[in-house]
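Re: that chain you flagged

S.,

Sorry for the slow reply, it's been a week of failed gels. I finally had a moment to sit down with the sequence you sent. For the record, here it is as I used it:
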Amino acid sequence: MRIGVVGHIEYGGLDELVRHLVSQAPALGLELEFEREMLAVAGSDAAPIGDATTLDAMLAFGGDGTLLRAARLLGASSAPIFGVNLGKLGFLTTCRAEEFAALLPRFARGDFTAEQRMALEAQWRTSGATAGARMRALNDVVLHKGGFARVLHLAITVSGERIGSLAADGIVISTPTGSTAYSLSAGGPIVDPALESIVVTPVAAHTLAMRPFVVPSHAVIEVQPDDAPAEVLVTVDGQVGTKLGPNQRLLVRRSPQPVRIVRMDDSTFFGRLRAKMGWGGIAERDR
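Prediction finished late last night. Pasting the structure tokens below so you have them in one place:
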């Protein structure tokens, strides 16, 4: 079983977890490959990740951001991701750091559930045949104005139908998984990940005429900046992105390949909301 390992090297406790993983891997039949930033932690004999799309699974030591990076590295692969939370929230992760040693043997023998999550694919295009690289998002695709102190005017089209014009600081196009991230803080709805859909949420809208809305997962969202600054920024999962130049528009649709997240307990989506985000007025996060 070939396992890719990614991690946030600034988190405390990472070294100890990696040492345990490396020591147990031979007996558990795990062949480990590490992202380059992790090689110094893993030891001199550690192998770097080659083709991540051929891995059988991925281990992500860190928080939700680390898990999102692991999903991006996997590309079109359907390999499951085992997230180990070293931070505070870890809403997407599988377990806490102190649970990892006990759960590792179960993971190695395939004793887990792989929760399937819809992803998005974003690409800029021009009126001609020119198009940018496809970018995959588990959480969201955000179009925003960067450092300019002015609003954006955005024309929004859904599956060929013009929805309207939006004056705002930006727009968040998210999956149900991403509905509890930036979209939520911008006033968007919480969507159960089992309900595959696309959430469109304005950021600091300057009109009441355009509110957050939800469309089917097969919809294609097109956003065309009108009279925009010299450059408009597109950010994917808060980590990578590109610039949208003049006469370019952004297309966002469902990715053909979902992301699979390892689960080893009977927790539910709303249970995790209560425990980690204090949703419903039950503050269990620090218990």
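What I noticed first: The chain has two domains: 2-117+259-281, 120-254.

Talk soon,
D.
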